[in-house]
Amino acid sequence: MHTLTIAQMAAGLRERRFSSMELTQALLARLNAAQPRLNAMITLTAAPALAAAQAADAGLAAGQAGPLRGIPMVHKDIFCTEGVLTTCGSRMLSNFVSPYDATVVARLKAAGMVMLGKANMDEFAMGSSNETSFYGPVRNPWDASMVPGGSSGGSAAVVAARLAPAATATDTGGSIRQPAALCGITGLKPTYGRVSRYGMIAFASSLDQAGTLTVTAEDSALMLRAMAGFDPRDSTSVDAPVPDYAATLGDSLAGVTIGVVREFFDAGLDGACGQAVRDALKVYEKLGARLKDVSCPNLPLSVPTYYVVAPAECSSNLARFDGVRYGHRCENPRDLMDLYKRSRGEGFGAEVKRRIMTGTYVLSAGYYDAYYIKAQKVRQLIAQDFARAFGEVDVLVGPTSPTAAFPLGAKTSDPITMYLNDIYTIGANLAGIPGLSIPCGFAGGLPLGLQIMGPHFSEARLLNLAHRYQQETDWHARVPSAWVN
Amino acid sequence: MSLTRNDIESIAHLARLNLTETEIPVYVQSLSSIMNFVGELDRAKTDGITPMAHPLPGLSQRLRADEVLESDHHERYQRNAPQVAAALYVVPKVIE
Predict the structure, then answer these.
(1) What is the rounded CA–CA span in Å between residue A380 and residue A371?
(2) Which residues pair with A113 in a beta bridge?
(3) What pLDDT was estimated at residue A471?
(4) Which of A69, A163, A224, B91 is deepest in the core (most CB within 10 A)?
(5) Who contacts A77 (Cβ-Cβ below 8 Å, separation ≥6)?
C-alpha cells in the first residue's frame, strides 16, 4: 500500500480496496519506525490525522469526490498549521503553536488530504543539505550516510522512503528541486505568485514559492491544482486561472523545442550527472521534441546575485523575531536591547545568523548601491537571458544539481561550497519562472535529477514533459531497497 | 575584501544579534569570503539596466482598500507570547 502514488491510492479508495483510515494508520506506523533512522519529521500529528482520515472516509462514502480526498501527506514545517507546533526548523520557534492555517494547508485540508505531521527542514529554509536544522540532520533514504539535500530535506526523504505519497515544500533558491534530485523524486517549484505564501514563514519574499514533492509528475499535477490560485491575503499572489494540469499530462511533444542551456554543462558538473541529462534528452528526441543549444550568459552570476538579494530580504524578514511577541526569549534580560540580542543570538543557528549579518551588511549605509542595487541589476540581466531564450525555445533543460548526494558533514565548514550546490536552480527563483526536477538516472547507487524550466505560468507544459518522460522510464518508480517493505 | 572584528561586531549590533567570543572569528572569516564571492558581480556590465523590482514583468505590488477585514484575535495570538499582563506584551523597563 505504501508504494502507491496519489493517483493509485485515490483509485484504491474509490474502489473500496482500502480506507483512508487504513492508509493513514499504515503510514503513521512507517513514519514512527523510520524516525530514528531518517529524522525526517519534527512533529507527528497522529490523533488529528486519524480524525481527518475518518472524516475523509465518511465523505468518500457519501459520494464526495476529489482526487486528494483521504490521501495522507506531510507539510514542511515552514507552513503554519493551526494548533500544531510550527518550528521552521529553528530553536527560535521551538515553542510556537500556530494560531492559524497557511492558505496551502487550508486548501489541501479542504481537498480532503490527511496531514500526518510536519517535516524536518533546514533552519528557516536556509541550507542545501538539511544539516542546519535545530532538530538535527535528515538522512538520505538511499544511503543514510548521505544528505537528502535541502532545505526541504525532510519532505523529500519522507516521499523517497514511501512514508507518505506527497509532501509540501518551499523553494527560494532550489529547496524543492535539489532535494528532489538527491532523493530520486519529482519536485515542482511553480511560478512566483502561483501558490499563496500566506502562513508560509518568510525567508526571501521576492524569491519564495511553495510547491510539491511527489513520486510522479501526475501526482504533482493533482496537488498543484488544489494548492494554486489567487489569495487576497498574499499581496504577491497572482490572479490568474488555474488550469487542470492533469488534463494535459499526456499531450504530444511533437514540435516542442527544448533548449539545452550551455552554461549548465560547466566544469563543476559531475560526469555521470551530465551523461544522465544527455541520455534523457535522447528520450525527448524519441518523443518528438527538437533540441536546440541556447546560451544564458549571465546565469553563472546567479549564485553571487542570490547571496546579496536573499540575505538582504532575510535580514528584513527575520527582524520580526524579537523575543517579545512569540518565539524564544532569553532568561533574565537586563534591558530591552539585551532581550533582543540574546533572544536572537540564542534562538537562531549559525547559518541563519550568517545570512542575517550578510544581509544587514549589504543593506547598511554606504553599501546599498554597491551590493543590493548592483545585484538587482544583474538579476534583471539573468531574467532577460531567460526571456530571450524563451523566444526561441519552449522549455530549458539541464541538470538539477552538480552532483548526486554528498556525505553528511562534507560541506558544512565552507559556506561557499555549500551555496554552489544551487548553481543550476537559483536562476529560476531570480527570474520568477517555474522549474521542476525529475529522476533521470543513478551514480554510485544515488539518484540524479533532470531540471526542466519554462516561462512564467508554464507549469502545465513542464508537468506534461515530466509525465511523458516518466511514461518512458522508470527512474522515478525506483524505491530505496531499505524502504521497499 | 576582508572584514575586521570591529566590522562583525557593528553588523551584529545592527542586526541585534549577541555573538559569543567563539562565534566572532568564525564570522570574520566566513563573511569576508562571502563578500569576496559576491564581488564577482563587479564583472557584470550593468550600465543603463533597471534594477529588478518584481520577478513578474509588468507587475507591481497589489494594493487594497484601507478597510478593516480582520477581527480582534489578540487573546489567541498572545498565547505564544513569552510574557503578557493585562493583554499587553511585557518587556524590561524602557523608561526610568
Answers:
(1) 14
(2) none
(3) 98
(4) A163
(5) A42, A43, A86, A87, A88, A89, A118, A119, A120, A121, A154
pTM: 0.97
Single-letter amino acid code for the residue at B91: V
A contact test, residue of B5, B21, B56, B70 with most A CBs within 10 A:
B56
A305 touches chain B (CB under 8 A): yes
In A262-388, at which residue ranges do the beta strands (DSSP E only) sit? 290-294
Q: A9 by DSSP, 3-state: which?
A: helix
Contacts of B77 in chain A (CB under 8 A): 99, 325-326
The answer to whether residues A322 and A340 touch, using CB atoms and an 8 Å cutoff, is: yes
Sheet hosting strand A41-44, strand order edge to edge: A41-44, A114-119, A72-76, A166-171, A209-214, A186-189, A435-443, A446-453, A395-399, A257-261, A290-294
**Prediction ipTM score:** 0.96
- Read off φ and ψ for residue A186, nearest 5 degrees: -100, 125
3-state DSSP assignment of residue A236: coil
- Cβ within 8 Å of B, A 360-399: 360-362, 364, 371, 373-381, 383, 387
How far apart are the CA of A99 and the nearest CA of chain B, in angstroms?
A: 6
B52 with A377: Cβ contact below 8 A = yes
- C-alpha to C-alpha distance for A370 and A353, rounded to whole angstroms: 22
Q: Are residues A214 and A176 in contact, defined by beta-carbon separation less than 8 angstroms?
A: no
B44 with A383: Cβ contact below 8 A: no
Weakest-pLDDT range from A38-42, A198-202, B53-57, B61-65: B61-65
Pull the grid cell for residue B4. Answer: 575586521
Q: Position of cell 496537488?
A: A223
| Euclidean distance between CA atoms A187 and A169, whole angstroms | 9
A335 contact residues in B (CB cutoff 8 A):
92-94
Between CA A338 and CA A336 the distance in angstroms is: 5
